[in-house]
Write a structure and sequence with these properties.
Elements lengths: L14 H22 L3 H78 L3 E10 L7 E5 L11 E3 L4 E8 L3 E6 L6 E6 L5 E6 L6 E7 L9 E4 L11 E9 L6 E8 L8 E6 L14 H19 L4 H6 L2 H5 L2 H4 L2 H14 L4 H19 L1
Antiparallel strand pairs: 1-2, 1-12, 2-5, 3-4, 3-12, 4-5, 6-7, 6-9, 7-8, 8-11, 9-10, 10-11
Length: 370
C-alpha cells in the first residue's frame, strides 16, 4: 500500500528554490525599472493610496510636536519682542539726538559765520531758563559782568535781533525779548528807508510798528532793520517783516502788524554784541527864560538876607552918613551884573535886576532912618 501525505500538508518547491526564484524576480524588476521606468505608475498608485494612512499614523506625532513648538515659540517671541522694543527705543533716541545735534551744529555754524562777518565784538551765550513772570517776555542767559556783558547790550542770533540785556548779574544776565510789550527798537524799512519805532505786543506773538502815517509807502512783505539812531543797536540788523497794514480814515497813523524774523523762543545759542556807538552826544538843552528869572530872584533874596544887619543896637549905632551910603547893595553888585549878562544872553528884560537893586536900597535907607 503506497503512502502519500494528505493534500493539506502537500509541500511545493523547496525553500531554496523559492528564494532563488524571488531573487531573480526582484532583480528583473529592479533592472527593468532602472532601465525602462516600468514601475513608476505602480509606485504612484500605491503612494496615493497609502498617503491617507500615513497622515493618520503621523497625527499623534504632529500633535505632540506642535504643542512643544507652540510653547517654545511663544516664549521666544516674547523675548524677541522685548529685545526689539528696547532696540527700537534706543534707535529712536539716537535718531532724535542725531537730528538735534545736526540742527545745533548748523545753528552754531551760522553763529560762527555771523560773528566772523560782524565787526562788532561779541560774546557767545546760551539760554538757561525763562523767567517766572508769565506776563513778560524775558529769558536768563549764561554770562554776566564777569564775561564783560553790560546793561543794554543787544542780543542777536544768525537770523536777526532777539532782544536786549536789561539786567546784569555776575554770572548771568536777563534779556528782554523783542516781543515784550515794553521793548522798543528804532527801525527803518529797507525798501523805502522810512524810519519808525517797533514795539512788542501784550500777547508777545507779533510786533507793532507805530507812528507810521497813513500816506506812508508800507506794504506787506517789507523787511525792517535796525536804524542805529538810538546808539544801542548796530544799524542793518534784521528785525521783522510786515504782515498786515490797516489804514483807517479816522486815525492819523496806520496800524502795521509785523512778525519777527528771528524766532524769539526757538533760539538757544545767542550772541551778545558789545556795540559802541559813534553818534555824538546830544547837545544840552537851552535854559528856560522863566526858570532863569526865578533862579535870579532866589539869588537876590539870599543876597539881601546876608546883607541885613542882625543886631538892632548896631543899626542905631551906625551914623546916618554911613547908612546913607548903599553899603548893603555893594555886596550883591556882581550878582546884579551877572544877572544883567544872563538876562542879555537869555533874552530877558532888565527890570528884574533893577527891581531887586531898588528894593535893597530902600531897605538900607529905612535902616538908616531907624
Amino acid at each position: 500500500m503506497e503512502y502519500s501525505p494528505p493534500p493539506l500538508f502537500k509541500q511545493g518547491p523547496s525553500a531554496l528554490a523559492r528564494l532563488i526564484i524571488f531573487v531573480m524576480i526582484a532583480l528583473a524588476l529592479l533592472i527593468s525599472d532602472a532601465r525602462f521606468r516600468t514601475l513608476e505608475i505602480v509606485r504612484g498608485v500605491l503612494g496615493a493610496g497609502l498617503y491617507p494612512l500615513q497622515r493618520v499614523a503621523l497625527v499623534p506625532r504632529d500633535i505632540f510636536m506642535g504643542a512643544a513648538d507652540l510653547a517654545v515659540t511663544s516664549a521666544t517671541l516674547r523675548s524677541e519682542n522685548d529685545k526689539l522694543r528696547a532696540r527700537n527705543l534706543q534707535l529712536s533716541q539716537q535718531a532724535n539726538q542725531a537730528a538735534q545735534l545736526g540742527a545745533e551744529n548748523a545753528h552754531l555754524r551760522n553763529l560762527l559765520q555771523l560773528s566772523q562777518r560782524m565787526t562788532t565784538r561779541s560774546t557767545p551765550s546760551e539760554i538757561q531758563y525763562d523767567t517766572r513772570d508769565p506776563f513778560t517776555q524775558k529769558v536768563v542767559i549764561g554770562g554776566g559782568s564777569q564775561q564783560g556783558i553790560k546793561d543794554g547790550s543787544p542780543v542777536v542770533n544768525e537770523e536777526g535781533v532777539i532782544g536786549q540785556v536789561t539786567r546784569v548779574f555776575p554770572m548771568q544776565s536777563e534779556v528782554t525779548l523783542l516781543t515784550d510789550k515794553d521793548q522798543a527798537v528804532p527801525v527803518q524799512i529797507v525798501r523805502t528807508g522810512l524810519r519808525s519805532v517797533i514795539y512788542g505786543t501784550p500777547k508777545g506773538e507779533a510786533l507793532d510798528l507805530r507812528f507810521v502815517p497813513i500816506s506812508a509807502d508800507v506794504v506787506a512783505g517789507d523787511e525792517l532793520v535796525t536804524s542805529g539812531l538810538d546808539g544801542v543797536y548796530p544799524p542793518g540788523l534784521p528785525v521783522a517783516k510786515v504782515v498786515r497794514v490797516d489804514k483807517q480814515a479816522d486815525t492819523a497813523f496806520a496800524r502795521v502788524v509785523c512778525q519777527p524774523i528771528a524766532p524769539a523762543r526757538g533760539a538757544r545759542d545767542l550772541l551778545v554784541l558789545h556795540y559802541e556807538s559813534t553818534v555824538p552826544p546830544r547837545p544840552a538843552d537851552e535854559p528856560d527864560p522863566a526858570t532863569v528869572a526865578k533862579e535870579l530872584k532866589k539869588k537876590n533874596a539870599k543876597a539881601q538876607d546876608k546883607g541885613k544887619p542882625g543886631d538892632k543896637d548896631a543899626k542905631s549905632a551906625q551914623p546916618a552918613s554911613a547908612a546913607a551910603v548903599p553899603a548893603a547893595p555893594a555886596k550883591p553888585a556882581p550878582a546884579a551884573s551877572s544877572a544883567k549878562s544872563n538876562s542879555k544872553a537869555s533874552g530877558e528884560k532888565k527890570p528884574a535886576a533893577d527891581k531887586g537893586t531898588r528894593t535893597q536900597g530902600a531897605q538900607a535907607a529905612q535902616g538908616a532912618k531907624q
